[in-house]
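Tokenised fold entry reproduced for everyone:
>
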Amino acid sequence: MFLQNISKFISNYRFEQATAESVTTAKAAFLDFYGVAYRGMDENAPNIALNTVGEIFSGNFNSNLKSSVIGTTLKTDILSAAFINGVAAHVLELDDGHRGAQLHLGSIIFPTAL
């Protein structure tokens, strides 16, 4: 029931309902995500994820696949890109956080949205 209510709220939410403060907060969170993901690609964990995805697909990242891996020229399928970008965004533990919930939402939300 709770998940259904959240899903309904999200699917019915429109940009016009957002306050200027929430838009500014979302923009700042996205910039934070992108910055730490870009720098995070220099670490071992996202490169291990990238190599694993490459092994699964036998290195065949064909030109029909359109999703970008941040900080690279690689384009891959949407699930692989979201996975790798999420790993890169969280690997440095510098991504945004919610102290009360002890969550790092940006490394989940933004790769999924992209």
User: Anything to note?
Assistant: The CA atoms of residues 99 and 105 lie 11 Å apart. The chain has a mean pLDDT of 85.
